[in-house]
Amino acid sequence: MSREGFHSAGLLLEIFADYLRLVGDRLLFSAGKMERLCVKNARRTLEDSYRQKVLLPEIARKVGLSPEYLSRLFHRETGRTITRYLMELRVAEFKRLLLLPERNVTFAIFDSGFQSVSQGNRAFRDICGMSPKEFRIRMLHLTPGQRRSKSAQFLSIGG
After folding, report:
1. Per-residue pLDDT tens over the stretch 43-95
2. Nearby residues of 158 by Cβ (< 8 Å), 6 or more positions away
3. What pLDDT score was predicted for residue 151?
4. Domain 87-155 carries which CATH code?
5. How far apart are CA 25 and CA 103, in angstroms?
């Protein structure tokens, strides 16, 4: 091969390498958008079904990912595990139900999606730092204005 041919081949390889980098960047960008969409859909699925028994393989199937990849991706995108997010959703509902004085605590636990009383109490204490009974006493002994203010704070996920 002549010197000019060798030089031309090198330039052609450089152009091809630049093209491959551009295509690779576009694919990564598209994959990132798709990953965020999958996590958004997983969150929506959890928000729609937290009162029932939720299985990771079902959620993963709905969003088109393997359970392992969805778990890693969800944690990377949200900063929490799927289990933690589900627990926060259930505790937020549990708190809302506890604000109804006539509502039985045990029924509130099950109506929030927990599978047992001990699971609901443990999750509540873990997230809120107090028992459901303490929460109810504190909230129900406030004036209506104070209760509205505290409710907004306490009913937020993770709050």
Report:
1. 999 999 999 999 999 999 999 999 999 999 999 989 999 999 999 999 999 99
2. 88, 127
3. 54
4. 1.10.10
5. 55
In 52-67, which positions are buried (b, 16+ CB within 10 angstroms) versus exposed (e)?
A: eebebeebbeebebee
Give, in degrees to the nearest 5, the angle at Cα 94 between 103 and 63: 135
Tokens found for residue 133: 């009974």
Structure token digits, residue 77: 């995108």
Q: Which two tokens stand for residue 50?
A: 């937290």
Task: Return the domain boundaries, the chain.
Answer: 3-79, 87-155
User: Could you report the per-residue pLDDT of 55-69, keeping only the tens digit for each?
Assistant: 999 999 999 999 999
Q: Find the angle CA(49)-CA(51)-CA(53) to the nearest 5 degrees.
A: 80
Contact predicate 115/53, CB 8 Å: yes
Q: What is the pLDDT of residues 25-45, one digit of tens each?
A: 555 445 567 778 899 999 999
Compute the distance between CA of residue 97 and CA of residue 124 in angstroms, rounded to an integer. Answer: 13
